[in-house]
Each structure stands twice: as structure tokens, then as C-alpha cells.
């Protein structure tokens, strides 16, 4: 029997810059059972769409470039909402073509960007951490002034993983404060008056 595909289960949160130093030193109350700093890196994201057709169908096509590689990726929402989400991530070009063809039958498979329009382009500086042995924590700072945090867990079972993430964040309310969150792409489009469903 083939192994189940791992899904990216994530929950966004707003973090206070004034708490980042306490977080990094694991000085909060309660402290994390274990907190590992995995480094800081920068990457550029370019999102492609055509009249919001892909995003309206839960598909985000992006090209992510860092100092080592450039990867074209389709993120497909298979559950959740804009704060608590589950995504399947596809990087195989043929699979991406098969994914977008039903929605955009006239796209160009000969061009790197499939002939789509650039929806957004921005740079992110990310600090990566691993907490309590398995939860990824990302603190993102964009070049247009927006900050957002994410807790991520790779899992086969979406419902169980969301429950684990929720319980993990509830354990440390001093850092994972409840409040309105806005993803990077949504904030970029709002600030520039671009219509999108993200």
C-alpha cells in the first residue's frame, strides 16, 4: 500500500515584536518544552493568476526564489479557512499543468509562468524555529511592512493535526495571542487595491 501524502497543516497568528526576544530565549511562561532556532533566510515570492480564477478555486501558483534555488509551486487548499488551513503542495510541473488546465484551458505550457499575469511580488525575511520536537514556527517580515507568524505541522490526517496545532498554541497563549490575522498575499493585495480571494 502506498504511503499517504503528507499535508501541510498551518495556523496563522499575529506576533508582537516586543515578545520576539523573550520567545527566542524561551523565557516565556510557560516555557516551551524545547525550542530550536533553525536560522533566518530570505526569499522572493512571485504569484501568478488570471482574473483571480486560480485563487477563487483555492489554488495559489507561486515561484519562490532564494539564494540557492527557484521553485515553481502550486499550493492547493484542501481544507480550513484563511487562518487555519490545510494545503497540498505540488512542485512537479506536469502535475501543475494538469491542475490548472481545467480552470485556464488556454494557458501557455511553453512559458515558465504559463503566460499568466503577475499578481504579486515581494520579499520575505523568515525566522524558522522548531518547538516541542515537531511544530514548525515561522516569523515572517515582508519588504512592504507586514508581519505574520505561522505554526506548521506536516501530517497525514488533517483533523488530528489541526487539533494538535490548536492545543499546542493554546498551551502558550503569552506568544500565540488570539486576534485578527492576515496572510502576506492578502495584505499585499489589500494595500495595493488588488482584488483577490486570499
Describe this structure in words.
The chain has 198 residues and is of the alpha+beta class. Helix content is 18%, strand content 40%. The protein is built from four helices and eight strands. The chain has an eight-stranded antiparallel barrel with strand order 1-5-4-3-2-6-7-8. β3 (59-65) and β4 (70-80) form a beta hairpin. The chain is globular, with a radius of gyration of 17 Å. The model has no long low-confidence stretch (mean pLDDT 91).
List keywords for this structure.
198 residues, alpha+beta, 4 helices, 18% helix
Lay out the secondary structure.
Elements: E1 7-13, H1 20-24, E2 35-49, E3 59-65, E4 70-80, E5 84-90, H2 93-100, E6 117-131, E7 135-142, E8 147-155, H3 158-171, H4 184-191
Antiparallel strand pairs: 1-5, 1-8, 2-3, 2-6, 3-4, 4-5, 6-7, 7-8
Sum this structure up briefly:
With 198 residues, the chain is α+β, with helices and mostly antiparallel strands. It has helices at residues 20-24, 93-100, 158-171, 184-191, and strands at 7-13, 35-49, 59-65, 70-80, 84-90, 117-131, 135-142, 147-155. It is globular and about 55 Å long.
Amino acid at each position: 500500500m502506498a504511503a499517504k501524502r503528507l499535508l501541510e497543516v498551518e495556523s496563522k497568528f499575529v506576533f508582537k515584536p516586543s515578545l520576539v526576544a523573550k520567545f527566542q530565549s524561551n523565557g516565556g511562561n510557560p516555557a516551551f518544552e524545547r525550542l530550536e532556532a533553525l536560522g533566518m533566510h530570505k526569499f522572493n515570492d512571485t504569484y501568478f493568476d488570471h482574473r483571480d480564477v486560480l485563487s477563487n478555486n483555492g489554488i495559489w501558483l507561486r515561484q519562490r526564489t532564494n539564494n540557492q534555488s527557484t521553485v515553481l509551486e502550486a499550493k492547493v487548499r484542501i481544507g480550513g479557512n484563511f487562518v487555519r488551513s490545510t494545503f497540498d503542495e505540488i512542485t512537479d510541473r506536469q502535475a501543475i499543468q494538469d491542475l490548472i488546465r481545467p480552470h485556464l484551458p488556454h494557458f501557455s505550457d511553453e512559458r515558465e509562468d504559463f503566460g499568466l499575469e503577475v499578481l504579486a511580488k515581494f520579499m520575505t525575511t523568515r525566522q524558522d524555529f522548531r518547538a516541542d520536537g515537531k511544530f514548525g514556527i515561522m516569523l515572517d517580515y515582508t519588504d512592504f511592512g507586514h508581519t505574520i507568524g505561522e505554526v506548521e505541522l506536516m501530517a497525514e490526517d488533517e483533523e488530528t493535526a489541526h487539533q494538535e496545532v490548536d492545543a499546542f498554541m493554546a498551551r502558550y497563549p503569552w506568544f500565540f495571542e488570539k486576534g485578527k490575522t492576515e496572510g502576506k498575499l492578502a495584505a499585499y493585495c489589500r494595500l495595493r487595491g488588488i482584488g483577490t480571494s486570499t
